[in-house]
Amino acid sequence: MRNNLERPLVVADLAGSVGMSDSAFHSHFKAVTGTTPLQYQKRLRLYEARRLMQSELQSVSSAAFSVGYESPTQFSREYARIRAAAAQAHARTDRSWRGGAGFRDGCMRRTAR
């Protein structure tokens, strides 16, 4: 998932790659990460976009497209929902993001593959 953030997530493909049914994979994934595969991918995308905006000084639009969002508007809406602030404001000011508000402790664990 981390290596292909820009690609759409197909749960059936992930389940098949580990020899599970879609529903079994979904249950196991949620038990390990505390979230669904699609929610997990969304968090990974938002996290990587945030890193791109802060570390590599990419614009909101550039970061959004880099991680697979179809539009900067969609990205900004999802970002604001989780972070309770606009992505552009965080890109300019907030440097202490890891573990910030809105991200459940442990949701970015590497245990799920």
Textual characterization of the structure:
The structure is a single chain. α3 (37-55) crosses α4 and α4 packs across α5 (72-83). Helices cover 57% and strands 0% of the residues. The chain is built from six helices and no strands. With 113 residues, the protein is mainly alpha-helical. Mean pLDDT is 79; it is low at 94-113. The chain is elongated.
Task: Please outline what is shown here.
This protein has 113 residues and is mainly alpha-helical. It has six helices and no strands.
Distance between the termini: 8 Å
Overall number of strands: 0
Based on CA atoms alone, the radius of gyration comes out at 15 Å
Query: What sequence of helices (H) and strands (E) makes up the elements?
Result: HHHHHH
List low-confidence stretches.
94-113
- β-sheet strand percentage: under 5%
Overall geometry comes to elongated
The percent of residues in helical segments reads 55-70%
Helical region count?
Answer: 6
Main sheet properties: none
Derived from helix and strand composition plus strand pairing, the structural class reads mainly alpha
Mean pLDDT: 79
What's the arrangement of secondary structure elements?
Elements: H1 11-17, H2 22-33, H3 37-55, H4 60-66, H5 72-83, H6 87-93
Please name the defining characteristics of this protein.
disordered C terminus; mainly alpha; 113 residues
